[in-house]
Amino acid sequence: MGIMLSFQEVTKIYPGAEHIKAVDSLSFNLKEGEICTLVGPSGCGKTTAMKMVNRLIPITSGKILIDDQNINRMDTIELRRSIGYVIQNIGLFPNMTIGENIATIPKLKGWDHDRITEKTESLLELINLPPGEFMDRYPKELSGGQQQRIGVARAMAVDPPIMLMDEPFGAIDPINREHLQDEFLKIQEKVKKTIVFVTHDIDEAIKMGDKICLLKDGKLVQFASPEELLTQPVNEFVKDFVGGDRTLKRLNLLKVKAAMSPAPPVVMKDESPEKAKSMLGELKADHLFVVDNENRLMGYVDKEALSKKADEVGDVTRSTDAFLPASSSLKDGLSEIFTHDLGYIIVVDEDKKVLGILTEDGIKEILRK
Amino acid sequence: MQIRLFYPFIKKFGVMAATAIIVILLYQYYGALEYTTKNLSEFFRLTLEHFFLVIVSMATAASIGVSLGIIMTRKGFERFGSAIMAIVNVWQSVPSLGVIALAYAFLPLVGLSGIGVVPALVALFFHAVAPIVRNTVAGIQSVSKDVIEAATGMGMTPNQILFRIEIPNALPVIMGGIRTATAIIVGSAPLACLIGGGGLGFWIFTGIALMDMGIMMAGAVPVALIAMLFDALLARLERIVVSEGIQSGEYQEA
Q: What is the pLDDT of residue A132?
């Protein structure tokens, strides 16, 4: 996919502070559909860099291109309307209903009534707030998390290809923040916007970013994928900023799927117990997992269970919760392994079909890479 | 226990009713009612004049005051803001009678008559404009910076921000200023008759001069009623024009 947003030697010097470069010849390219998190200690220029994209802050030198067009050559108002903007303190218009808030820019663009209603409703559905219930309510009646979701919906009202998000979840309590992050990533899978996301929280940057742009004193220190930032920090500053637990952070980032080994032999539920016993003997294992005809995990049998009288393995199967979906993070996987103390855990897909197993060695292996 | 349920009603209507009864009794006792019925056509003329003074000075003060307030919050004008505010505040500290006297004294210098309706209107206007300007500025400044930043970042023009965001959100405060100004105007309007501006003040001052409580009350009671009427009307108007999203709780009428 093509390059959507390009910073080329962008520098910002604020009048009255000529000796400080708030942003110092920053260059990077962002592909269409990517989230780039701008992260760094406070005063590193991340917010300044973001606000230059919609020209809330004028560029001192260098240029920013959107779709190969220099933003300084575009009409400011048109430029801003083609970029979604979400800020930390949300900034919903208190005098307008939720519906009116979302419809602000469509209205100014002269959309007709039906199109506006349709768009507003579909956006509310996208953010999981039923339109019938929320359309005519006012911002003051909503919780912080709901308000921020409206803020995101409002920013997407005219389907801008690019979105700027300035610590959008910064003012939300930790539990809701996690929830909103997950929800937003799901939305992003559908809408595929090119997003510049400012945060001071490295964990958030790693979680949300396809690319991380780590800044210090206005200068770009490292521009890399989260994985690369964690495994190949370019200097001590990056190492410190990422934190001593960067290996554990990778566990959060990597998915179970990546570290999975092939599934061990399983037994069908309609096999005879004798067959299962002999399998146990061959494998020198103390238990076997049982699946149904469609390879869905049912549970396990051990010697004790098999010693009971039964026609089929399925009759003596014990249920288990020692499994997890392949889309989970390795951190959850490791935790499950410790919880069940089996040395491994079964990996399943959404239908509970067995895909493989995750072992401690598998995790170590992938972390070594 | 039961009576507690009625406390809010007693508080709201009881005091009003008691006041009304006392006023009506006094009105009757001092012969104000008799005086009014005897001079009914004069009563209507004075009331009309009074309404004219209040409405015209009010409308001018509101339109000019709000405009001035808005201009003072525009980019580039902020530095004039504090200067204008200082003048406006000093002006407001001059007592009503002083403003009327000043109008009488100074208007001739600019070629206008110091006597009649015009100087009365000018005086009332100047006296009422201060709280409107002040509240307009305060109201617009109180609109959250985040809201303005969001609006700007979304691509609203300064004018769109002013009319769709700043003014609607400042309206409760602006309306508060207009109500204060109305109270001042209605309260000062009787003084207009001192420089020939007419109005119900004529009976009040005649009553005082003749030491006749009846005539005085025949002027004073309608003036009080007009004051309450305007405040109630403005409260109603406020509830209509201010968005539900920023209305807070109950509104006080009267």
A: 92
Nearest Cα of chain B lies from the Cα of A56 at a distance, in angstroms, of 7
- What is the domain range of residue A332? 257-368
Q: pLDDT tens, B41-89?
A: 999 999 999 999 999 999 999 999 999 999 988 888 877 777 887 887 7
Total domains in chain A come to 2
Cβ atoms < 10 Å from Cβ of B147: 22
> How many domains does chain B fold into?
1
Nearest to A80 among B146, B155, B169 (CB): B155
Mean pLDDT across B124-128 = 87
Residues of A with CB under 8 A from a CB of B: 54, 56, 76-83, 85, 87-97, 104-105, 108, 138-140, 151, 154-155, 164
Task: Assign residue A74 the CATH number of its domain.
Answer: 3.40.50.300
Residue B217 tokens read as: 């009350």
Which one, of A80, A88, A173, A160, lies nearest residue A123 by Cα? A160
- The answer to whether A154 contacts B154, with C-beta atoms less than 8 Å apart, is yes
Residue that wins the pLDDT comparison between B25 and B12: B25
Residues A114-123: pLDDT tens digits? Answer: 999 999 999 9
**Which residues of A are less than 8 Å from B246 in CB distance?**
94-95, 138, 140
Cα separation, A226 vs A217, in Å, equals: 21
Using a CB-CB cut-off of 8 Å, the residues of chain A touching B173 are none
